[in-house]
Amino acid sequence: MSETVSLNIGDKQVKLPVITGTENEKAIDISKIRAETGYITLDPGFKNTGATTSAITYLDGEEGILRYRGYPIEELAEKSSFLEVAYLLIYGELPTKSEFIDFQNKVSRHTLIHEDMKKFFEGFPTKSHPMGQLSALVGALSAFYPESLNPDATEEEDNLTIIKLLAKFPTIVSWIYKKSLGHPVIYPKNSLDYVGNYLNMTFGQLTEDVEIDPIVSSAMNKLLILHADHEQNCSTSTVRIVGSSNANLFTSISAGISALWGPLHGGANQAVIEMLEKIKEDGGDSEKWLAKAKDKNDPFRLMGFGHRVYKNFDPRAKIIKKACDDILNNLGVKDPVLDIAKKLEETALNDSYFVDRKLYPNVDFYSGIIYRALGFPTDMFTVLFALGRLPGWIAQWKEMRTNKEPIGRPRQIYTGEGKRHFVALKDR
Ligand code: ACO
């Protein structure tokens, strides 16, 4: 017999079904609770609320487990490529060799963006934040591909929209970077693989051929894979909820980009480097900054520390910390900020404030140091996170659409004024 739990409300008892996941995670299905009792549940920040069932990513915050479609993140980061992981997330299985070649060819064929989109780049102020530009440009793709607006599109039509977005995203991202430098843009080169093409458009020059160091492309692949999905986080939930109104893929992802921008989410990678720089300029005293983070009268938080779900360690941070050492050694880069990061981590992990609250370095703690070593400016870091997260967002949007999930519409408990009558301005 399937498991249920009982809920007593006054003299009424309701039986609520229990949903069990693949890894034996349990949820109480409250979808009928309002109809049966008139009550709703209240869960600010959705800390205990499952918004959906999903077959994409499994995450166990206590054990530090992260798997895409069943494959451990450690194996994917070590052995796979970003585009292969994108295929896995979006279509559910690793591609065969011929499926992968076909996918790669399709993506390569759509890398150009409409020439009229260049006018957007001209319109943005040179110093505008790349995330604001990215969100606007990705939303604008829907204006150039109106067929994507059809909520009744066939799977094949949706798939073409998915391919277009995957293909054009690196072009947009690298052109935003080129604009910030005042450099001419580099057009996509379809002979290169996905990440190689992105790096060529970013670091290539019109005036000379630039060889991309294999260490750099391997590091980029790894970083993008580690960011590719993370189940129902703030930006992904945003993508799903916007998409649930039948909004098109481009605009749903544009909303996800905006959600990612905040420093409590993807914007943390920029905030970490800015914080480490500040600590360095202040003399590098990590104890002093840890004291600030612990002081409840000080709004300062140790950026790159803590996670809503991981309460023992972030498996991505483990991989990234090692990758950071390897890359800096391989590229021969000495970054004093890395030493401060290591000292901060070591001190915090032995401090009862952080230990008691289960605050550990998250993926963003070290990713910024790698991006910096690869030559990216700080305000591009969150854009790189978005480039990595794109396949996850797409997979989640596709799953939501395939499952025909209802429009997202949470409820509330109203705590404002009771009914009162309007008083004319002259009498107030
Ligand atoms: N520095 C100092 N104290 C912290 C930190 C931090 N980075 N993070 C949490 N705390 C403290 C809180 O003050 C709170 O203390 P209290 O119990 O004494 O009031 C306790 O730890 C719990 O914190 P919450 O904010 O309730 O934890 P939550 O799970 O809601 O927040 C979050 C998680 C937002 C990531 C938080 O840890 C944080 O702000 N971290 C810094 C920003 C950051 O690195 N974000 C990136 C997240 S990963 C990602 O998006 C890829």
UniProtKB/TrEMBL annotation:
What residues sit in the active site?
307, 364
Instruction: Give a yes or no for keyword ATP-binding in this entry.
Output: no
Q: Which Gene3D superfamilies match?
A: 2.20.28.60, Citrate Synthase, domain 1, Cytochrome P450-Terp, domain 2
The record's keywords, sorted A to Z, are: Transferase, Tricarboxylic acid cycle
Pathway in which the depicted protein is active: Carbohydrate metabolism; tricarboxylic acid cycle; isocitrate from oxaloacetate: step 1/2
Q: Which GO terms describe its cellular component?
A: cytoplasm
Q: Which PROSITE patterns match?
A: CITRATE_SYNTHASE
Molecular function (GO) terms for this protein are:
citrate synthase activity
Q: Name one GO biological process term.
A: tricarboxylic acid cycle
> Which reaction is the catalytic activity of this chain?
oxaloacetate + acetyl-CoA + H2O = citrate + CoA + H(+)
In the record, the note on similarity to other proteins reads: Belongs to the citrate synthase family.
Q: What is this protein called?
A: Citrate synthase
What organism, scientifically named, is this protein from?
Answer: Olivibacter domesticus (Pseudosphingobacterium domesticum)
